[in-house]
Design goal:
- The complex is a heterodimer of chains A (252) and B (250).
- Chain A is α/β, with parallel strands linked by helices.
- Chain A has one domain (8-246): NAD(P)-binding Rossmann-like Domain (Rossmann fold, 3-Layer(aba) Sandwich), CATH 3.40.50.720.
- Chain A is built from nine helices and seven strands.
- A seven-stranded parallel sheet of chain A has the order 3-2-1-4-5-6-7, sandwiched between helices.
- Chain B has 250 residues and is α/β, with parallel strands linked by helices.
- Chain B has a single domain (8-190, 219-243), classed as NAD(P)-binding Rossmann-like Domain (Rossmann fold).
- Chain B has nine helices and seven strands.
- Chain B has a seven-stranded parallel sheet with strand order 3-2-1-4-5-6-7, sandwiched between helices.
- Chain B is globular.
- The mean pLDDT of chain B is 96.
- Classes of the chains: A alpha/beta (252), B alpha/beta (250).
- At the A-B interface, helix 6, helix 9 and strand 7 of A face helix 6, helix 9 and strand 7 of B.
């Protein structure tokens, strides 16, 4: 019996990277999975096939989580089809792949980071909490970043501030949700080997980053997914409001 | 296949409380368990029986882990009988109730030796063989008071528990290249003999009111986090302090 046996998990942005790993690991642990994607339908279908190979149910739902109406529609679709949502993994996120200078940046960069990385997470939480409260059981895990803890060496205030805001979601809500059997925690991945990371860091810069990681390598998306799975299980029922860092010792 | 399949785990102070809960959870996940105790031989043997009923091996070893010789003898025995130690759970420890102004130097040293020196001695004893096999897990039990601060002013306990966090931060870099992770756990109020002995029922009720989950934690809930950290699943987590406290401190 897996640690998530029979649970229904909605994972935003799960066509690739950490989100896709969460889908696979959580399916391995017995969860049925909703794979949300924005653009990459083929990738989402591949992830869905992996979930099915574990003998679990899967639904693929397209939605841009920076659009509140689309979040509502997505959640309603899942509730109509499967009756409940036990677990929300707020994984969808954005990082600009063009470097920018703080002094000359357009406000649109800031707005996009806050909207896609922070506001969308809160909107997803708002959508799933009523159902979780009713059944007096729920797990919410918000994906942050090591940059929210160690800061940025390059003036990347949009990403860092949006992820620092993410850290505040669990701190703001844990107390309210605790009496309802709902835990809410933050997972802060370090430098993780994903398409996003490789798009943001040039090949020349990756060794620089790895040099300051005591374990001597980037993390794998699976290593982040394992903690997410644990936190979403009954095993972690007494853990809430916490930030758990998966970063090879990059920040302590 | 459990997450700790065939790993060998040494748990100090495993006759009761969190230590005993670790023994059972980790055995459930497939580990063989060394149950260290100082005084409660009968209880330690009971834990061993429960481990064996989960079809894992159990070794019961008496040792006062604040004593270097006894720690050394214990680790030698494990290596002789089972060939290796993969996981160390630095759990042995005690609560003290000292009034600061009246604390004697001897009471200070006893607290530090029982709770912190013991963790250092055990880590020192197991690290060489973990380095050789390039795999290891060390989990240090700290306490809520190391983060929140003490209510009663018991400096010996408070400093020794804060020291566990320092031990974790001092070692994680130098162990990383040999596949060894070291992390600390800060349990909130957990329903054990130690907690019962330390507080009146009224104080405990007050305590629980402040926990957002409105309940104390179970020793198993600490054990589950420790089991996860001890597994291959958590190989990228090191140097961290993880709190299991029902939201009492964030």
């Amino acid at each position: 019996m897996g640690e998530l046996e029979g649970k229904i998990a909605l994972i935003t942005g799960s066509s690739r990277g950490i989100g896709a790993s969460c889908a696979r690991v959580m399916a391995r642990e017995g969860a049925d999975v909703v794979v949300n994607y924005r653009q990459n339908k083929d990738a989402a279908e591949e992830v869905a096939a992996d979930v099915r190979s574990y003998g679990r149910r899967v639904r693929i739902v397209q939605a841009d989580v920076s659009e509140r109406a689309q979040i509502q529609a997505m959640v309603q679709q899942v509730l109509d089809a499967w009756g409940r949502i036990d677990v929300l993994v707020n994984n969808a996120g954005h990082h600009s792949t063009q470097p920018y200078m703080f002094e000359t940046m357009g406000w649109d960069l800031w707005d996009q980071a806050i909207e896609t990385n922070l506001t969308s997470q809160l909107a997803c939480i708002k959508a799933v909490v009523p159902g979780m409260k009713q059944q007096r059981w729920g797990r919410i895990v918000n994906m942050s970043s090591v940059t929210s803890q160690r800061g940025s060496g390059s003036g990347d205030v949009c990403y860092v501030a949006s992820k620092s805001g993410v850290n505040g979601l669990a701190r703001g809500l844990f107390s309210l949700l605790a009496p309802f059997g709902i835990t809410i925690n933050t997972v802060s991945p370090g430098t993780t080997d994903t398409d996003l990371t490789r798009a943001v860091l040039t090949p020349e810069r990756i060794p620089q980053y790895v040099a300051r990681i005591p374990i001597g390598r980037m993390g794998t998306p699976d290593e982040v997914a394992e903690v997410v799975s644990f936190l979403c299980s009954d095993r972690a029922a007494y853990i809430t409001g916490q930030l758990i860092a998966v970063n090879g010792g990059e920040y302590v | 296949m459990g997450e700790l399949q065939d790993k060998v785990a040494l748990i100090t102070g495993a006759s009761r409380g969190i230590g005993a809960a670790c023994a059972l959870v980790m055995a459930r996940e497939g580990a063989d368990i060394v149950i260290n105790y100082k005084q409660s031989q009968h209880l330690a043997n009971e834990v061993a029986e429960q481990v064996r009923s989960l079809r894992r091996r159990a070794l019961v070893i008496q040792a006062d882990v604040s004593n270097a010789e006894q720690v050394s003898r214990m680790v030698d025995q494990i290596l002789e009988e089972w060939g290796r130690i993969d996981i160390l759970v630095n759990n042995a420890g005690r609560h003290f109730h000292l009034k600061f102004e009246k604390m004697t130097l001897e009471e200070w040293y006893t607290g530090m030796d029982t709770n912190l020196t013991s963790q250092v001695l055990c880590a020192q004893a197991v690290v060489p063989s973990m380095r050789k096999q390039k795999w290891g897990r060390i989990i240090n039990l700290s306490a809520l008071s190391a983060q929140r601060g003490s209510v009663s002013g018991d400096v010996s306990y408070g400093c020794s528990k804060a020291g566990s966090l320092g031990l974790t931060r001092s070692l994680f870099r130098s162990l990383a290249s040999d596949g060894i992770t070291i992390n600390a756990i800060c349990p909130g109020p957990i329903w054990t003999d130690m907690l019962k002995a330390g507080f009146t029922p009224e104080r405990l009720d007050q305590f629980v009111q402040n926990v957002p989950m409105h309940r104390m934690g179970k020793p198993e809930e600490i054990a589950e986090m420790i089991s996860f950290l001890a597994s291959d699943r958590a190989g990228y987590i090191t140097g961290q302090t993880i709190s299991v406290n029902g939201g009492l401190w964030v």
